[in-house]
Input
Amino acid sequence: MRKRTCSFVLVIAGCWLWLVTAQAPAEEGWTRFRGPNGSGVVPDSPTVPVRWTEEDYLWRVTLPGGGHSSPVFWQGRVFLTCADDGKTAQRIVVCLDADSGHILWQRHFASQPHRKHRFNSFASGSAAVDDRHVYVCWSTPEQFLVLALTHQGREVWRRDLGPFVSQHSSGHSPIVYQDLVVVPVFQDEEGGGRSFIVALDRRTGETRWRLPRKSTRVAYSTPCVFRTPEGKELLIFNSQSHGVTAVDPESGSVVWELSQMEGKPLLNKRSVSSPIVAGGLVFASCGSGGGGNYVVAVRPPGEGRTEPQLAFKIDRSAPYVPTPVARGNLVFLWYDRGIVTCVEVPSGRVVWRRRIGGNFFGSPICVGDRLYCLSAGGECVVLHAGRRFKLLARNPIGELSHATPAVYRGRLYLRTYTHLICLEKK
Output
């Protein structure tokens, strides 16, 4: 009788464990743009090199198409988007073995050429991956498409979210939050674009909620999660249309929003970089190719405050495209034109600002106490992530890159326009 009771308990416990893991799959490593919660931060790894040459590459693989997206990983597999930026605009999802670089499969999807920014590509949006699927999205003027594929490349579902209006085309990256695939679709007001944020069921692609948004200029930022002192998790978005917004992931309702300061828009230009959370503050930025970039630090409601507040603003050498990265109480702003600023949180005091040269579209990441960022010209710059500026290395890659580095299982992965490179310190 005891054996039967014990067996029954074990079965029930096993079923409970299966239900828990099925409802909330654990994130394994680098599963979205800029890794865990979009922070770009991973613990120190002695196998991630600081200096290297081509002879130190573990492998370098030619991809089946060009693009600016960054790799994501799950259980030893790399998932990446590519495209034909020429006559066909064909979109490609490719899966590689993370250890060898061997291409395991690739899936091609017909598309159509259309107007895009000269610095954009038809594969600028990074994928997201969980224990079931890999999720990708891209657009044409006629449709904004979200796709879910198995880890073996079989299409499971697709959603056409309607026309997409933008003078620069798309570059959006989805995220997975619990059982949702969340995609912000901010469009250009000129031309009649209709903006919204949508949460899709990750298993079926069905709409769980849809939040209408105002349209001004297209925004390309990828959301992150903010945890309140009470433990409530909120999705954070930034855009010119609404400034910084916190959304309840269960209902899709706006919890708080800071869209204006003293009657003026909080963000008065396009948002390309993504929000991050550091020192209890939310950082967001806006800018343009002609300048006028700035970063805001927003203090969420709490500790007696019922409304969000502007903590401080950085408008000198502020990034337009690169997303900031934080280490401890320091935030590093990597300006597109090769100037890096170290800012103290929560004071907003500038600790140091130094010119490193080059042009940058990819965002920096932080590995332990080191910052890594790929220049458009094909150089990986490594800096010390501390209160004193220290240039650690300049590593030539030799090929155009607009992508953000990734780290997985102690290896550094660099995506150039047509190649993926894997590095591990020997």
Remarks:
- The chain is about 5% helix and 40% strand.
- Residues 26-423 form a domain with the Methylamine Dehydrogenase; Chain H fold (CATH 2.130.10.10).
- Confidence is low (pLDDT under 50) at residues 1-24.
